[in-house]
Amino acid sequence: GDQEAGEMGLAAVPGRQAAFREGLAAAVQYAKAVGCPRIHLMAGRVPLGTDRAAVAGKMETTFIENLRYAADLLAQEDMIGLVEPINNRITDPRYFLNTPHQAAAMLEKVGRPNLKLQLDLFHCQIMDGNLSRNLETYFPLIGHIQIAQVPGRHEPNSPGELNFPYIFELLESLGYTGYVGCEYAPKGDTLEGLGWLRSYWESRGLQHGGTSKAAE
């Protein structure tokens, strides 16, 4: 969308369907060029000057329409579309899609197997908590996981509410084999900030890069 005008995605924004489709077509070309099989379909914000409750029905209808269009287009390219709930308590008060429950309901209504949930645990914790049960409940829908400590949105080993070694082991036990995106703001240098990952690998008896020492 038009970021200078305050847009952050268009999938649920009434009247912007043509722009959404144009943006999606461009995103597919970029994704093909870099070999990326997943595209985040951003819902967008409740329009300025409107009441969320008053426009929720129309935005949901627009979202479902656009997601079905996107799913059919992405299926032709063997790609997956992702929807991500973003918290409206800290990060973006006007963002339309806020909770994993809302996202799961949308995905059920859309009914396309190549649309999945992009679950950012930072947003999920702020909106709902109950991370273990939410991961177990929505695991069949999850297509991508993102992490950041709460509330500072820094490295997983920075002070905060979340126990990431436990969460990583839970994801493994559930059978998650996808990527875990580091969707956080480093407190300092990016490479120094990745020290948490090296320490985590070592605690699991792994070499840097996640390979087992026994295999080496």
UniProtKB/TrEMBL annotation:
Q: Phosphoprotein: is it a keyword of this entry?
A: no
Going by the UniProt record, its keywords in alphabetical order are: Isomerase
Q: Keyword Cell wall biogenesis/degradation, does the record have it?
A: no
Q: Name one GO molecular function term.
A: hydroxypyruvate isomerase activity
Question: Which GO terms fall under biological process for this protein?
Answer: glyoxylate metabolic process
Q: Where is the Xylose isomerase-like TIM barrel domain?
A: 9-199
> Which PANTHER family would you find in this protein's record?
HYDROXYPYRUVATE ISOMERASE-RELATED, ISOMERASE
By what name is this protein known? HYI isomerase
Q: What is the lineage of its organism?
A: Eukaryota, Metazoa, Chordata, Craniata, Vertebrata
Q: Which gene encodes it?
A: Hyi
